[in-house]
Input
Amino acid sequence: MRKEEFKMERPGQVKVGDKVEITESKLPFSYYYTLEPAVAMSANYPLNNRIKSREGIVEDIKEDERGYFVMVAFDEE
Output
């Protein structure tokens, strides 16, 4: 099980247990991912650490002074 964090700007866009889809976008030397429909965005990932799954399950949502962070579990190593 692979778990990755996504930054969400506003609360209430997704909830724990939701099945979410992601899209992959390519930068010159890395990739980033977006929870659809443009709910949250990942950090940049190096080429050798891409997320292979295109859907996952929201496991946790946390809030701190920087905003909201969504933890998504994917069915991969």
Remarks:
- The beta strands are 2-8, 19-26, 30-35, 40-42, 45-46, 55-64, 67-74.
- The chain has a mean pLDDT of 94.
- DSSP finds no helices and seven strands in the chain.
